[in-house]
Amino acid sequence: MGFSSDLKKFLGKKIHCKCGRVHFIPTREIYVGTNAQECLLKFAADSALGRKVLIVGDKNTFAVAGELLSEYLAEKGLKVSVEVFITPRGKNLHAQQELADRLAREIKGKFDFAVAVGSGTINDLVKYACDKVKIPYISYPTAPSMNGYTSPIAALSHKNTKKTLAARPPVAVIADIEVLRNSRHLSK
Predict the structure, then answer these.
(1) Model confidence over 142-151: pLDDT tens digits?
(2) pTM over 0.70
(3) Domain 5-181 -> CATH class
(4) Signal peptide: which range, if any (predicted)?
(5) What does the alpha-carbon distance between residue 56 and residue 83 come to, in Å, rounded to a whole number?
(6) Which of 92, 83, 99 is nearest to 156 (CA)?
(7) What is the chain's mean pLDDT, rounded?
(8) At what angle do helices 36-46 and 67-75 cross, to 10 degrees?
(9) According to the model, what pLDDT value does residue 1 have?
(10) 3-state SS, one letter per residue, for the chain
């Protein structure tokens, strides 16, 4: 499926607008289709992101997309590590600043880039953590219902208050159409 070439010409570019301002779209690739794993690998190689990657998901998103993605990238020669957030039975994972800060400490100096396998919560946690330690991340969506994959903010809770914090968007959003088609609210 890919993405319209008319829209793609704006990705990763500065746009001199007739409003007099310069706008910048930091996300350089958006892909929705088959062979998403191959697309992600090619993008990482073409963008010289590096070879050490952290795949982040929760138990649901890792089961439906993260495990296959991590195995594929490892088979292709990347040094893959995995972080799977586990919650108590019947509980949902929440995007808490403390979790994002912990993830940032775990990432710092160990990885060239990260891949957020999930939807809102996972992307906000990874987006904030990667921004904090200044490494790029790729969003690998598991739900078409979330609309903030390329957003420049992370919505995180801290001391029972939800905040929106500035964070760099992903360098790419690469989605497997079958994962999206089969999603059933895998993660919030």
Answers:
(1) 998 888 899 9
(2) yes
(3) alpha beta
(4) none
(5) 5
(6) 99
(7) 91
(8) 50
(9) 47
(10) CCCCHHHHCCCCCEEECCCCCEEECCCCEEEEECCHHHHHHHHHHHCCCCCEEEEEEEHHHHHHHHHHHHHHHHHCCCEEEEEEECCCCCCCCCCEHHHHHHHHHHHCCCCCEEEEEECHHHHHHHHHHHHHHCCCEEEEECCCCCCCCCCCEEEEEECCEEEEEECCCCCEEEEEHHHHHCCCCCCC
- Give 87-106 pLDDT, tens digit per residue: 877 788 899 999 999 999 99
Euclidean distance between CA atoms 34 and 176, whole angstroms: 6
Which residue ranges make up each domain of the chain?
5-181
Structure tokens at 86: 């586990």
